[in-house]
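WARN  no MSA supplied for this record, continuing single-sequence
INFO  ligand: magnesium ion
INFO  echoing inputs
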Amino acid sequence: MGIQTTFVMVKPDGVQRGLVGNIIQRFENKGLRLVGLRQLTPSLELAESHYAVHSERPFYSGLIEFITSGPVVAMAWTGVDAISVARNIIGPTNGREATPGTIRGDFAMDIGHNIIHGSDGEDTAAFELGLWFPDGTIEWTRDAESQIYE
Ligand code: DAT
Ligand code: MG
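INFO  complex generated
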Protein backbone atom coordinates (compact mmCIF):
# COMPACT_ATOMS: atom_id res chain seq x y z
CA MET A 1 0.00 0.00 0.00
CA GLY A 2 1.39 3.35 -1.02
CA ILE A 3 0.55 6.59 -2.80
CA GLN A 4 0.47 6.19 -6.56
CA THR A 5 -0.47 8.39 -9.50
CA THR A 6 -2.26 6.78 -12.42
CA PHE A 7 -3.08 7.89 -15.94
CA VAL A 8 -6.76 7.90 -16.95
CA MET A 9 -8.21 9.05 -20.27
CA VAL A 10 -11.80 9.60 -21.37
CA LYS A 11 -11.76 8.29 -24.95
CA PRO A 12 -13.47 10.04 -27.92
CA ASP A 13 -16.74 8.13 -27.36
CA GLY A 14 -16.94 9.30 -23.74
CA VAL A 15 -16.29 12.92 -24.73
CA GLN A 16 -18.79 12.82 -27.63
CA ARG A 17 -21.45 11.32 -25.36
CA GLY A 18 -20.99 14.05 -22.76
CA LEU A 19 -19.78 11.75 -19.99
CA VAL A 20 -16.68 13.72 -18.89
CA GLY A 21 -18.35 15.35 -15.87
CA ASN A 22 -19.95 12.12 -14.66
CA ILE A 23 -16.63 10.29 -14.98
CA ILE A 24 -14.60 12.93 -13.13
CA GLN A 25 -17.26 12.95 -10.39
CA ARG A 26 -16.78 9.22 -9.78
CA PHE A 27 -13.01 9.57 -9.23
CA GLU A 28 -13.49 12.61 -6.97
CA ASN A 29 -16.24 10.89 -4.99
CA LYS A 30 -14.02 7.87 -4.43
CA GLY A 31 -11.35 10.04 -2.83
CA LEU A 32 -8.73 10.22 -5.55
CA ARG A 33 -7.16 13.64 -6.17
CA LEU A 34 -6.92 15.23 -9.63
CA VAL A 35 -3.33 16.25 -10.35
CA GLY A 36 -3.46 16.61 -14.14
CA LEU A 37 -6.13 17.44 -16.73
CA ARG A 38 -5.77 18.06 -20.48
CA GLN A 39 -8.17 17.95 -23.42
CA LEU A 40 -6.62 17.26 -26.81
CA THR A 41 -7.10 15.35 -30.03
CA PRO A 42 -4.21 12.86 -29.92
CA SER A 43 -1.71 12.94 -32.76
CA LEU A 44 -0.99 9.70 -34.60
CA GLU A 45 2.45 9.62 -32.99
CA LEU A 46 1.05 9.99 -29.48
CA ALA A 47 -1.61 7.34 -30.05
CA GLU A 48 0.91 4.89 -31.48
CA SER A 49 3.27 5.40 -28.54
CA HIS A 50 0.46 4.97 -26.02
CA TYR A 51 -0.77 1.73 -27.60
CA ALA A 52 2.64 0.41 -28.78
CA VAL A 53 2.18 -2.71 -26.63
CA HIS A 54 -0.80 -3.67 -28.83
CA SER A 55 0.90 -2.96 -32.20
CA GLU A 56 0.81 -6.61 -33.32
CA ARG A 57 -2.84 -7.15 -32.37
CA PRO A 58 -5.52 -7.40 -35.11
CA PHE A 59 -7.52 -4.54 -33.58
CA TYR A 60 -4.54 -2.14 -33.46
CA SER A 61 -5.26 -0.06 -36.61
CA GLY A 62 -8.91 0.38 -35.61
CA LEU A 63 -7.85 1.32 -32.11
CA ILE A 64 -5.47 4.02 -33.39
CA GLU A 65 -8.10 5.34 -35.80
CA PHE A 66 -10.63 5.53 -32.95
CA ILE A 67 -8.38 7.20 -30.38
CA THR A 68 -7.24 9.88 -32.88
CA SER A 69 -10.80 10.51 -34.15
CA GLY A 70 -11.55 13.40 -31.79
CA PRO A 71 -10.84 15.01 -28.45
CA VAL A 72 -9.97 12.94 -25.40
CA VAL A 73 -9.63 14.08 -21.79
CA ALA A 74 -6.33 12.99 -20.25
CA MET A 75 -6.12 12.94 -16.45
CA ALA A 76 -3.72 12.07 -13.66
CA TRP A 77 -5.23 10.85 -10.36
CA THR A 78 -3.37 10.36 -7.08
CA GLY A 79 -4.13 8.27 -4.00
CA VAL A 80 -3.26 5.09 -2.11
CA ASP A 81 -3.17 2.23 -4.64
CA ALA A 82 -4.54 4.66 -7.24
CA ILE A 83 -3.73 2.33 -10.15
CA SER A 84 -5.91 -0.59 -9.00
CA VAL A 85 -8.53 1.70 -7.46
CA ALA A 86 -8.96 3.44 -10.84
CA ARG A 87 -9.09 0.12 -12.72
CA ASN A 88 -11.87 -1.03 -10.37
CA ILE A 89 -13.85 2.17 -10.98
CA ILE A 90 -13.38 1.64 -14.74
CA GLY A 91 -14.31 -2.06 -14.93
CA PRO A 92 -13.23 -4.81 -17.36
CA THR A 93 -12.48 -4.15 -21.04
CA ASN A 94 -15.72 -5.46 -22.57
CA GLY A 95 -18.57 -3.13 -21.65
CA ARG A 96 -21.19 -5.82 -22.11
CA GLU A 97 -19.51 -7.96 -19.46
CA ALA A 98 -18.62 -5.14 -17.07
CA THR A 99 -20.62 -5.04 -13.85
CA PRO A 100 -23.09 -2.15 -13.45
CA GLY A 101 -21.59 0.40 -11.07
CA THR A 102 -18.34 0.48 -13.01
CA ILE A 103 -17.91 3.15 -15.71
CA ARG A 104 -17.81 0.59 -18.51
CA GLY A 105 -20.62 -1.40 -16.87
CA ASP A 106 -22.81 1.69 -16.77
CA PHE A 107 -21.96 3.27 -20.14
CA ALA A 108 -20.35 0.82 -22.59
CA MET A 109 -21.74 -1.89 -24.89
CA ASP A 110 -18.56 -2.60 -26.81
CA ILE A 111 -14.99 -3.84 -26.31
CA GLY A 112 -13.35 -1.19 -28.52
CA HIS A 113 -15.62 1.75 -27.76
CA ASN A 114 -15.33 1.37 -24.01
CA ILE A 115 -15.31 5.03 -22.87
CA ILE A 116 -12.15 5.18 -20.78
CA HIS A 117 -8.53 4.05 -20.35
CA GLY A 118 -6.63 3.45 -17.11
CA SER A 119 -3.01 2.40 -16.57
CA ASP A 120 -2.63 -1.28 -15.68
CA GLY A 121 0.53 -1.18 -13.52
CA GLU A 122 3.28 0.98 -12.04
CA ASP A 123 5.56 0.85 -15.09
CA THR A 124 2.68 1.58 -17.47
CA ALA A 125 1.47 4.48 -15.30
CA ALA A 126 4.94 6.06 -15.24
CA PHE A 127 5.29 5.64 -19.01
CA GLU A 128 1.82 6.98 -19.82
CA LEU A 129 2.04 9.94 -17.42
CA GLY A 130 5.34 10.95 -19.03
CA LEU A 131 3.82 10.61 -22.49
CA TRP A 132 0.61 12.61 -21.90
CA PHE A 133 1.96 15.04 -19.27
CA PRO A 134 5.49 15.82 -20.50
CA ASP A 135 5.59 18.95 -18.33
CA GLY A 136 4.68 16.92 -15.25
CA THR A 137 1.61 16.91 -13.03
CA ILE A 138 0.37 19.36 -10.37
CA GLU A 139 1.46 19.41 -6.71
CA TRP A 140 -1.35 20.17 -4.26
CA THR A 141 -2.88 18.74 -1.11
CA ARG A 142 -6.45 18.99 0.13
CA ASP A 143 -7.20 21.78 2.58
CA ALA A 144 -10.95 22.41 2.37
CA GLU A 145 -11.20 24.27 5.70
CA SER A 146 -8.98 27.10 4.54
CA GLN A 147 -11.16 27.48 1.44
CA ILE A 148 -14.38 27.67 3.47
CA TYR A 149 -13.12 30.25 5.98
CA GLU A 150 -10.99 33.28 4.99
P1 DAT B 1 -7.94 -2.17 -21.16
O1 DAT B 1 -8.32 -0.86 -21.82
O2 DAT B 1 -9.09 -2.73 -20.36
O3 DAT B 1 -6.66 -2.10 -20.37
P2 DAT B 1 -6.42 -3.65 -23.15
O4 DAT B 1 -5.20 -2.97 -22.62
O5 DAT B 1 -6.40 -5.14 -23.24
O6 DAT B 1 -7.73 -3.24 -22.33
O7 DAT B 1 -6.74 -3.10 -24.61
C1 DAT B 1 -6.57 -1.72 -24.89
C2 DAT B 1 -7.75 -1.25 -25.69
O8 DAT B 1 -7.78 -1.91 -26.95
C3 DAT B 1 -9.11 -1.58 -25.05
O9 DAT B 1 -9.52 -0.62 -24.12
C4 DAT B 1 -10.01 -1.62 -26.24
C5 DAT B 1 -9.12 -2.18 -27.34
N1 DAT B 1 -9.29 -3.63 -27.48
C6 DAT B 1 -8.79 -4.58 -26.66
N2 DAT B 1 -9.12 -5.80 -27.06
C7 DAT B 1 -9.88 -5.61 -28.18
C8 DAT B 1 -10.54 -6.49 -29.08
N3 DAT B 1 -10.50 -7.82 -28.94
N4 DAT B 1 -11.21 -5.93 -30.12
C9 DAT B 1 -11.26 -4.60 -30.29
N5 DAT B 1 -10.65 -3.71 -29.48
C10 DAT B 1 -9.98 -4.22 -28.44
MG1 MG C 1 -4.70 -1.77 -21.02
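The chain has one domain: 3-145.
INFO  checksum written, moving to next record
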